[in-house]
Design brief:
With 60 residues, this protein is mainly α. The chain is 92% helix and 0% strand.
């Protein structure tokens, strides 16, 4: 698994948390939803990378 891919997923998660938080402060429900969506995307990316790592370990 690529450290770069993990870093991108983590950055997306942080971006989502900030956007969600800003949405809560301003009362912008759309920003909150977009922030949560980015966090969910990050979770999926991490899951994909975990699966890649597991396959690689199984092959090795």
């Amino acid at each position: 698994m690529s450290i770069e891919d993990r870093a991108k997923a983590t950055a997306k998660d942080l971006e989502g948390k900030v956007q969600e938080g800003a949405g809560k402060v301003t009362g912008d429900r759309e920003a909150q939803a977009k922030g949560k969506a980015k966090q969910a995307e990050s979770d999926v990316r991490h899951g994909v990378e975990d699966a890649k790592d597991n396959v690689k370990r199984a092959i090795d």
